[in-house]
Design brief:
mainly beta, 3-stranded antiparallel sheet, 10 strands
């Protein structure tokens, strides 16, 4: 699996991904919605987790907030639905254990910028 960001036709960042086989065959590109700073980890069986953050504009001060989210990825290259990990997190990073267990860390977006984590599927 590979995941990256690009600007869409509206000039906003979006996540896209595709399956990459062991032999180098590339699958079709899948648009995954808004997001930035993707990180991807795969376990020994090829199951994975994608994490990213999204800046969400609001009409009140501070005018936006940053949320960190995750999507499971099957070994066949299917992206699961987006789950919000926190509405106050940025630059998430993920790592995998051998059997579909993932640990995600992120920095709290608001002061004092505490490092947070969660483990699970």
């Amino acid at each position: 699996m590979i995941v990256w960001t690009r600007y869409n036709s509206s000039g906003k960042l979006e996540l896209v991904g595709r399956r990459l086989s062991a032999g180098g065959t590339r699958g079709s590109v899948t648009t995954l919605g808004p997001g930035d700073r993707p990180d991807l980890a795969l376990d020994d069986d090829g199951d994975g987790m994608l994490v990213f953050h999204t800046v969400v504009p609001t009409s009140t001060i501070p005018y936006s907030y940053t949320k960190s989210s995750a999507r499971l990825v099957s070994r066949s290259g299917i992206f699961g639905t987006t789950k919000t990990l926190t509405s106050d997190g940025r630059v998430p990073q993920v790592d995998a254990r051998p059997s579909s267990r993932f640990t995600v860390i992120w920095q709290q977006a608001t002061h004092p910028g505490t490092i947070k984590s969660v483990t699970g599927p």
